[in-house]
From TrEMBL:
InterPro entries: NA-bd_OB-fold
Name this polypeptide is given: Cold-shock protein
Top-level taxon of the source organism: Bacteria
Lineage: Bacteria, Pseudomonadati, Bacteroidota, Sphingobacteriia, Sphingobacteriales
Region ranges (Disordered): 1-21
Amino acid sequence: MFAYVDEYGNISDTPPSQPYKFKEEDLQRPADPTEEYHFGKVSFYNEVGHYGFIRDNETRETVYFNDNLAGMVLNLNQAVKYKYARSKQGNQITEVEKI
């Protein structure tokens, strides 16, 4: 016995009458919001531990950074342009630039 799935996800025992034609948008990956740059400023920085948080200007979410991840020392209230990735511990920067 064969099972067929139509373009709407329905399972049937009869083959489809016309093969599905792929559209170009079916092959494109949806845009990942973490791949674009975000703008914010350093809202907290611990000089002893060399870590801090960047607060996004639009969403008001915070993103963790440390001097090793940033590749530079950021100061409190420093305006930055950054990218981030989600991890087990939360959002962490992957790239950062001073503005």
